[in-house]
């Protein structure tokens, strides 16, 4: 599968999805005017990737800021990864969300997502 790379801008994050290198990174700010449009190719890529995934991959979310609309798209991506763990025995894909320890909003959102996902795929780490 071909990698997907989107360069970071002031309003959008770097997206580096490269199964050949085992690198899956979202980093920066996410404030696109239309998150569904911006992340459309990312969600399609993730759905294709889910058909033939790398076992036990780690997806890093190193977001310094994101708006509510972006968080909804992120959750869609999280659901794809969660389904991988549930549908493929032995899969242990991780979503690592980096946050400052005093970022109460992100920690609360993390806990909320954790309750909604079936597998134990979310992990919170300090920046």
Just give the CATH class.
Answer: Alpha Beta
Residue stretches low in confidence (pLDDT < 50, at least 5 long) are: none
Q: Mind telling me which CATH architecture this is? A: 2-Layer Sandwich
Number of strands: 6
Number of helices: 3
Taking strands numbered 1, 2, ... along the chain, how are they ordered across the largest sheet?
1-2-3-4-5-6
Number of domains: 1
Strand content: 25-35%
Helix fraction bin: 25-40%
Alpha-carbon Rg, integer:
14 Å
Described by strand count, sense and barrel closure, the largest sheet is: 6 strands, mixed
Q: What is the succession of H and E elements?
A: EEEHEHEHE
The CATH topology is what? Transcription Regulator spoIIAA
Net shape: globular
Structure description:
The protein is an alpha/beta fold. The chain has a single domain (4-126), classed as Transcription Regulator spoIIAA, CATH 3.30.750. The protein contains 3 helices and 6 strands, in the order βββαβαβαβ. The protein has helices spanning 35-49, 68-87, 104-116, and strands spanning 4-6, 14-18, 23-30, 58-66, 94-99, 122-126. Strands 1-2-3-4-5-6 form a 6-stranded mixed sheet, covered by helices on one side. β2 and β3 form a beta hairpin. The chain is globular. The N and C termini lie far apart (30 Å).
């Amino acid at each position: 599968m071909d990698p997907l790379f989107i360069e970071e801008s002031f309003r959008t994050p770097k997206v580096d999805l490269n199964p050949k290198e085992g690198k899956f990174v979202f980093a920066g700010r996410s404030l696109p005017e239309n998150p569904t449009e911006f992340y459309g190719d990312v969600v399609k890529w993730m759905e294709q990737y889910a058909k033939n995934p790398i076992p036990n991959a780690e997806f890093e979310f190193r977001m310094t800021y994101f708006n509510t609309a972006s968080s909804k798209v992120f959750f869609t991506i999280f659901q794809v990864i969660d389904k991988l763990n549930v549908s493929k025995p032995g899969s242990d894909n991780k979503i690592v969300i980096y946050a400052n320890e005093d970022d109460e909003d992100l920690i609360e959102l993390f806990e909320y997502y954790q309750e909604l996902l079936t597998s134990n795929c979310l992990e919170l780490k300090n920046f």
